[in-house]
Write a structure and sequence with these properties.
This protein is an alpha+beta fold. The protein is built from four helices and six strands; from the N terminus they run E-E-E-E-H-H-H-E-E-H. Strands 1-2-3-4-6-5 form a six-stranded antiparallel β-sheet, covered by helices on one side. The two termini are 22 Å apart.
């Protein structure tokens, strides 16, 4: 299988695997991730290992804030949400971790996931987050870690029987 995160010059990257494709585009202080699901499962409710894998590989993501219709904390929302929404939380948390790893006392990023249901039901999402050029060095390592974890979660769904 060919997983590939291109080494295009910052700030645009492309990623593709049998499970998903991701393109990134920076416009001034906003980065857009265009996330297309190729995997048959789109929602974490069909990926029962999700919480277990997050607790093992990125437990802090379960404590992140989440704005959702039911006002659920993310540790509850994660049990039945779109994989792209999960990716949003993971990438934002990984960006925070990368910034703190570089010696910053704290870090905070926010984002939103837009589900492109009208044009492409169920499969295409846009994730937006505010970012400055100052934050770009944190993006590539955060993307690599986030994509690896999403792939692990998606692959866990294929290993069920």
């Amino acid at each position: 299988m060919g997983y590939h995160l291109s080494s295009m010059p910052q700030p645009s990257w492309n990623y593709s695997s049998p499970n998903l494709t991701l393109t990134t585009k920076l416009n001034r202080n906003l980065i857009r991730f265009h996330f297309t699901m190729l995997h048959p499962v789109v929602n974490t409710k069909d990926l029962p290992q999700t919480t277990k894998l997050l607790k093992k590989h990125c437990p802090s993501v379960l404590s992140t804030k989440c704005n959702n219709a039911l006002n659920l904390p993310f540790k509850e929302e994660v049990k039945a949400t779109e994989v792209a929404h999960l990716f949003e939380h993971i990438i934002l948390q990984q960006m925070c971790q990368e910034q703190i790893k570089e010696g910053y006392y704290s870090a905070e990023f926010s984002g939103r996931t837009i589900w492109e249901t009208a044009a492409h039901p169920l499969r295409i999402f846009t994730i937006e987050t505010s970012i400055t050029r100052f934050h770009l060095p944190f993006l590539r390592p955060a993307l690599k870690k986030s994509l690896a974890l999403i792939e692990l979660i998606l692959d866990s769904g294929q290993n069920q029987s």
